[in-house]
């Protein structure tokens, strides 16, 4: 994913968020005039816009841009797609890997578009369950495949850095549509994403 360029940041949003960050940093007991923090409110305002840029992007359009007619009707899997998102309860990161499979029904999609839509839906304030279903439903509705499956494994900083402080806990969510409701197809997918070979 290309780095969001300076000119793509909304000037008014950057300015408003910058001023609010300045207040927040001061409320937390810091001195925004010390050298290391002088540009921090602006940097943080830009970082937050970068991390929530998914609101401005249309995942269905991304998929539609690279759909090709093809008579392939076996499973296609893209696994270990790394993602970074923000938990909507604490605005702290949760991140991990997404695994996506689909069985085409006349159309395949450009492989890179699957990680791209993971980015679109993860760069928002999210919960892992909704992220899983948004990716699943977008592929199902746009590509209309025989079936689609999404598994997400993630570490939540709100459970590791604070709160319950469980540093090794990993949350797994999954969703299955169409042919993946079938236990054999689902098992084949789950075996393939846990295999070290592919
Ligand atoms: N289901 C779900 N819960 C999440 C996700 N990210 C964070 N949470 C949880 O959201 C909940 C918010 O609970 P609250 O009791 O309102 O917040 P809290 O007092 O900060 O809770 P603790 O984290 O237990 O200290 C917590 O249990 C978090 O673990 C997510 O992606 N999915
Ligand atoms: Zn949280």
Automatic annotation (TrEMBL):
Pathway the protein acts in: Cofactor biosynthesis; 7,8-dihydroneopterin triphosphate biosynthesis; 7,8-dihydroneopterin triphosphate from GTP: step 1/1
Binding site for Zn(2+): 87, 90, 158
InterPro entries given in the database record: GTP-CH-I_C/QueF (IPR043133), GTP-CH-I_N (IPR043134), GTP_CycHdrlase_I (IPR001474), GTP_CycHdrlase_I_CS (IPR018234), GTP_CycHdrlase_I_dom (IPR020602)
Catalyzed reactions: GTP + H2O = 7,8-dihydroneopterin 3'-triphosphate + formate + H(+)
SUPFAM superfamilies per the UniProt record, alphabetical: Tetrahydrobiopterin biosynthesis enzymes-like
Domain of life: Bacteria
Protein's GO biological process: one-carbon metabolic process; tetrahydrobiopterin biosynthetic process; tetrahydrofolate biosynthetic process
Keyword line: GTP-binding, Hydrolase, Metal-binding, Nucleotide-binding, One-carbon metabolism, Zinc
This enzyme's EC code(s): 3.5.4.16
Domain annotation GTP cyclohydrolase I: ranges: 18-193
GO molecular function terms attached to this record: GTP binding; GTP cyclohydrolase I activity; zinc ion binding
Pfam family, one: GTP_cyclohydroI
HAMAP family: FolE (MF_00223)
Record note on quaternary structure: Homopolymer.
Family the UniProt entry places it in: Belongs to the GTP cyclohydrolase I family.
PANTHER family (UniProt xref): GTP CYCLOHYDROLASE 1, GTP CYCLOHYDROLASE I
Name the record gives this protein: GTP cyclohydrolase 1
Species for this entry: Olleya namhaensis
Lineage: Bacteria, Pseudomonadati, Bacteroidota, Flavobacteriia, Flavobacteriales
Designated gene of the protein: folE
